[in-house]
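Thread: Newbie trying to understand structure tokens

Hi all, I'm a second-year student working on a class project, and my supervisor (Dr. K.) asked me to get a predicted structure for one chain before our next meeting. I've only ever worked with sequences, so writing a 3D structure as a token string is new to me. If someone could post the tokens and maybe explain what I'm looking at, I'd be very grateful. Here's the chain:
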Amino acid sequence: MTMLVACEQQRFESTATENVVLLEQELTMNELQRTRQVRLYLPPGYKDSEQHYPVLYMHDAQNLFDTQTAYAGEWQVDEALNTLHAEKGVAVIVVGIDNGGDKRINELSPWQNDDYGQAEGEAYVRFIVEQLKPYIDEHYKTKPDAANTGVMGSSLGGLITQYAIFEYPNVFSKAGVYSPSFWFSDAVYEHASEKLSKLSSEHKIHYLVGTEEGSDSVADINKMVSIISEATASQAVNQPVLLVNIVPGGEHNESFWAQHFAMTIEFLYH
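---
Reply by user tm_fold:
Sure, no problem. This is what the structure looks like when written as tokens:
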């Protein structure tokens, strides 16, 4: 039995680089009355640098840095950022928020879908904006303005990312919206139309979807892009800068998202 346990531990050995650290204490989400682990990626040389850095807030942090904690493979965010730093001088702090396990769907749902329980997405994003971001800005060397703050996620994490940048364009100016679960509620389209006038050409959004993710995935992205383009034209307002990638053969998994992460960082931050 001991040998079997040892093999399992070796099989799932941590793959996180030394750039990844955990907050010493889990943060209490005041409105939701639960705690949450936060994982940070700090750029090479951070400790001894006087530089301040842009920040990217990401969901489902268990899947970002470490095979040991990932559900179905990791994004290799830390390795990708280390490579970008070495090759192009890109330096970004990533603040990864663990998902809530059995509360994940609730927390990443800003709109009600009666098939999936109570929507808690608004409270989750308020936790990021009103609690987590002030904490990070106080304790780490950040550039706290919206011009240097982004948000990113996939699947339901893509849905809540879409909500976050449209609801708080004065907090986030950059978003990576990967394989978003727009099927969850048509309210996502209404929300974009209502809030679009608050965004400008200073905002950047990268939409990514694969053609093998489901029958409506590509159509949902195209619908959102059309809404943004048509609304900005009719309202004579500046459209946010969009990068839209529809990838032939792309599937709904961490491997697909990991392949495109570096491109998103270059688009949003370089």
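A couple of things are worth pointing out once you decode it. The helical segments are 2-11, 77-88, 104-107, 121-139, 156-167, 187-195, 217-235, 254-269. The two ends are 51 Å apart (CA to CA). Feel free to ask follow-ups in this thread.
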